[in-house]
Amino acid sequence: MTCDAPPPASEPRQAVLIATDQRQECERIQTWAAGRGLEVMVEAILDADPFPLKALRPLLQVVEWRRGVARPEIAAALHKTHSRLTLLILSEGMEPDLEDFEIEHEWDFVRRPYSFAEFVWRASRALSRLGPALRALPRQVKLGPLRYDRDAQELELDGAVLPLRRAERDLLLYLMQNANRFITCRELQQNVLRSHGDGGAARNQVYELRRKLRSAGLPDAILTAAQRGYRLCWSG
């Protein structure tokens, strides 16, 4: 069994990490990010590190700073992901005052209550400062015998299209893009299925994806490790 995995990327991913427990707010940011051609990752980064955030490297992280969260805690969270940009969502009446946090990248904030138009303006302005770093997503993603074509929205194995449902396709693509690490059920459920829960729905999708990959000639393509999650591998 081999894992044909690329090393962690040194450049930031064309992605937005969203850390807020306001579901409607989160969904609106997801829609905006997808419209910009950005990958979306959803995670409460103040939680106890359910997966290695340093491997994520998003271009932009949108982080909710609630009352009661201490400055050292939010400062540590902002440094975890190696993001290029930070946009804070502050509670009403809060002041950011981040000069002593030693944040070396660009940052901005909105304060509740805010209009979503203000969020879009500030986020778009921050992204425009990146210039060449903000580039279009690659039209194809390749890993071993697998190839994803964004224009056709099809996944191929050795040139043959895999008959996958959308959720299965998105899950396999996510595993391809993160082949250098294990992915937890919780991460798959939040970032691929866009739902909350203990990961049960993600486990069901992995089961179905495994079954189809087995039929296509990749019986051991998804490696499972207890307490760590899944990783894309294959014999070769």
Notable traits:
single chain; Rossmann fold; 11 strands
Produce a short descriptive summary.
The chain has 236 residues and is α/β, with parallel strands linked by helices. 30% of the residues lie in helices and 22% in strands.
Write the layout of secondary structure elements.
Blueprint: E1 13-19, H1 23-35, E2 39-42, E3 58-65, H2 71-80, E4 85-90, E5 106-111, H3 116-128, E6 140-143, E7 146-149, E8 154-157, E9 160-161, H4 166-177, H5 185-191, H6 200-215, E10 222-225, E11 229-232
Plain-language structure description:
By secondary structure, the protein is an alpha/beta fold. It has 2 domains: 13-133, Response regulator (Rossmann fold, 3-Layer(aba) Sandwich), CATH 3.40.50; 140-232, Orthogonal Bundle (Arc Repressor Mutant, subunit A), CATH 1.10.10. It has 6 helices and 11 strands. The chain has helices at 23-35, 71-80, 116-128, 166-177, 185-191, 200-215, and strands spanning 13-19, 39-42, 58-65, 85-90, 106-111, 140-143, 146-149, 154-157, 160-161, 222-225, 229-232. The strands form 3 sheets. Strands 2-1-3-4-5 form a 5-stranded parallel beta sheet. A 4-stranded antiparallel beta sheet has the order 6-7-8-9, covered by helices on one side. β3 (58-65), α2 (71-80) and β4 form a beta-alpha-beta unit. α4 (166-177) crosses α6 and α5 (185-191) crosses α6 (200-215). The chain starts with 12 loop residues before the first strand and ends with a strand. Mean pLDDT is 76; it is low at 4-10 and 45-54.
